[in-house]
């Protein structure tokens, strides 16, 4: 089966992420659905790097990349002039994360000599994708510094987990990316619930309810699609029993 | 006087909560075969050991625990910001927060197990629903208790001990720290001993035997409910001791400020020195008693 290339997915994720942030910036909170593609793109790049036998290191790749992305988005949102219009904000977020993501990738390749193929490209893709997601979440949750650790860690897990969960000889891109979609919906669902609790800030509560409803619908569809793939990939599914070779 | 009582109370409470959190965290990771032992469980089908363990491959323990603790603390922090923050409100809010983060843990755990088994098709590993659904409530219970303890610890550190960081950020730090301690201290007992009981005790895991784990127990096939029953006796308590000591001794830096702030720096430096000397003497004793390290 032909795999989706990193470039195609990243291009789509970039456009979709920018559209999402501009929509959220104009008060249309369900623009958060456009942030699902950046989740897929970041998870795909974690897969691209971790496939070369990183083993337990694939979690580290995830939180390294997400840390760069989240830091870039936090830096961009600190500046008042950057936040004046959604266009300027998204441009600042993409520019900062692209530069830092590429720089860390080049450093890891040339200075630390990690010897992972295409590490610069993948590190930049993870950084920009997670920066877009973080920036969108910040617009929804308001600028309460107490929420920054939560935003960072929940995005990190959703990005590093799809490949980590699917690792094994029978792993394929389609199932990993479907799992990434499941976790993207799950993450935006939780962000919506936290936004309801944190409301009183930027957005009225009905917008947060809309996020929760849209994410829940997406979650159901994604889980059904993912489980269909699991059923065709698994050797055998049983309620209980023992290995046939020994009994 | 009130400030001193608050500090004393905070130090004692923080130490106790941290000790309990350590026990629960290690049991949680063992009930799901997470972290280091996960690599062994993952390798097992590839060399013909088809198992009935819960393969909860979420991530390393530090980020996973950081997520559970931060989610619980964030929800509790927002709830107390809305509805007032006296001791009773903090307790109720922490329980609600920990319950919400436990749901997230269950979701991630189920997705991990099913995906990992699906990727083991070539090695004929069957996906048994009961080997996922039996340990899941146990794992969730330990996860809930860990998140609750860490949230309460973050509140205690913030309000009683006067830590300047916000409650969710403290919970994040505690989550990362407890995950690191749990995976370095507690998991050795499960990953290197329990899963390799048919090898000589303390022999480590050479590359040649990796994945050759015990899949059968005292009665029939082993499952992930047996594991915390075993590791609770040593691994869990040692993890609790390590994390509890860390938090308890760290709180002394707020307690001993009788002759200016530098007193606390001196007290903690002396403590670190004592610990280093103790570790050195222990190592010397162990090498004299059991011989030098052998080369592979």
Mind explaining what this structure looks like?
The complex is a heterodimer of chains A (about 250) and B (about 300). Chain A contains eight helices and one strand, in the order ααααααααβ. Chain A is mostly helical and about 250 residues long. Chain A has one domain (about 5-235). Chain B is mostly helical and about 300 residues long. In chain B, about 70% of the residues lie in helices and about 0% in strands. The mean pLDDT of chain B is about 90. Strand 1 of chain A pairs parallel with strand 1 (about 125-130) of chain B.
Measured between the Cα atoms of the first and last residue of chain B, the distance is: 60 Å
Shape label of chain A:
globular
Tell me how many strands of chain B there are.
1
Greatest contact between two chains: A-B, 51 and 53 residues
Q: What are the low-pLDDT stretches of chain B, counting only 5+ consecutive residues below 50?
A: none
What would you report as the Rg of chain B, rounded to the nearest angstrom?
Answer: 21 Å
The largest sheet of chain A is: none
Q: How many domains in all of chain B?
A: 2
Order of helices and strands of chain B: HHHHEHHHHHH
Give the N-terminus to C-terminus distance of chain A in angstroms.
Answer: 37 Å
Poorly predicted runs of chain A are none
- Which radius of gyration of chain A do the C-alpha atoms yield? 19 Å
Topology of chain A as a string of helices (H) and strands (E): HHHHHHHHE
What structural category arises from helix and sheet content of chain A?
A: mainly alpha
Layout of secondary structure:
The complex is a heterodimer of chains A (247) and B (296).
Chain A: H1 6-25, H2 36-50, H3 57-78, H4 86-110, H5 119-141, H6 148-166, H7 173-198, H8 205-233, E1 237-238
Helix pairs in contact in A: 1-2, 1-5, 2-3, 2-5, 2-6, 2-7, 3-4, 3-5, 3-6, 4-5, 5-6, 6-7, 7-8
Chain B: H1 2-31, H2 36-43, H3 61-83, H4 87-118, E1 127-128, H5 129-133, H6 135-160, H7 167-193, H8 226-231, H9 235-255, H10 262-290
Helix pairs in contact in B: 1-6, 1-7, 1-9, 2-7, 3-4, 3-6, 3-7, 4-6, 6-7, 7-9, 9-10
């Amino acid at each position: 089966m032909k795999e989706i290339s990193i470039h195609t997915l990243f291009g789509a994720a970039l456009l979709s992420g920018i559209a999402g942030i501009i929509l959220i910036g104009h008060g249309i909170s369900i623009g958060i659905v456009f942030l699902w593609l950046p989740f897929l793109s970041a998870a795909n790049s974690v897969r691209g790097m971790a496939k070369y036998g990183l083993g337990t290191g694939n979690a580290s790749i995830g939180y390294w990349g997400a840390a760069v992305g989240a830091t870039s988005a936090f830096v961009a949102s600190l500046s008042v002039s950057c936040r004046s219009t959604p266009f300027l904000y998204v441009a600042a977020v993409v520019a900062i994360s692209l530069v830092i993501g590429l720089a860390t990738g080049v450093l890891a390749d040339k200075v630390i000599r990690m010897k992972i193929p295409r590490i610069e490209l993948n590190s930049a893709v993870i950084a920009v994708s997670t920066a877009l997601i973080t920036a969108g979440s910040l617009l929804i949750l308001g600028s309460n510094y107490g929420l920054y650790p939560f935003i960072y860690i929940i995005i990190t897990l959703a990005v590093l987990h799809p490949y980590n969960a699917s690792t094994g000889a029978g792993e394929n891109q389609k199932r990993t990316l479907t799992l990434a979609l499941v976790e993207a919906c799950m993450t935006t669902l939780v962000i919506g619930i936290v936004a309801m609790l944190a409301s009183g800030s930027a957005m009225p509560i009905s917008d947060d309810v809309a996020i929760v409803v849209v994410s829940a619908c997406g979650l159901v569809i994604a889980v059904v699609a993912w489980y269909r793939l699991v059923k065709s990939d698994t050797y055998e599914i049983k309620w209980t029993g023992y290995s046939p070779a020994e009994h | 006087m009130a400030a001193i009582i608050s500090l004393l109370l905070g130090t004692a409470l923080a130490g106790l909560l941290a000790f309990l959190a350590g026990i629960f965290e290690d049991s949680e990771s063992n009930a799901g075969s997470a972290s280091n032992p996960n690599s062994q469980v993952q390798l097992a089908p590839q060399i013909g050991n088809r198992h009935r363990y819960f393969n909860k491959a979420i991530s390393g323990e530090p980020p996973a625990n950081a997520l559970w603790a931060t989610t619980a603390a964030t929800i509790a922090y927002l709830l107390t910001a809305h509805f007032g923050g006296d001791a009773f409100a903090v307790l109720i809010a922490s329980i609600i927060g920990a319950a919400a983060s436990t749901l997230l843990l269950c979701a991630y755990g189920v997705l991990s197990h099913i995906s990992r088994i699906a990727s083991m098709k070539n090695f004929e590993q069957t996906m048994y629903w009961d080997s996922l659904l039996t340990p899941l409530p146990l794992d969730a219970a330990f996860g809930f208790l860990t998140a609750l303890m860490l949230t309460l610890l973050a509140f205690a550190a913030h309000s009683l001990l006067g830590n300047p960081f916000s409650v969710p950020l403290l919970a994040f730090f505690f989550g990362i720290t407890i995950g690191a301690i749990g995976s370095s201290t507690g998991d050795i007992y499960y990953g290197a001993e329990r899963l390799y009981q048919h090898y000589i005790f303390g022999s480590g895991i050479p590359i040649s035997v990796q994945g050759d784990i015990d899949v059968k127990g005292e009665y029939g096939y082993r499952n992930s409910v047996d594991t915390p029953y075993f590791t609770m006796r040593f691994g869990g308590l040692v993890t609790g001791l390590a994390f509890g000591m860390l938090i308890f001794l760290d709180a002394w830096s707020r307690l001993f400020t009788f002759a200016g702030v530098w007193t606390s720096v001196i007290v903690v430096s002396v403590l670190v020195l004592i610990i280093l000397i103790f570790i050195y003497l222990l190592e010397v004793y162990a090498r004299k008693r059991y011989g030098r390290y052998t080369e592979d």
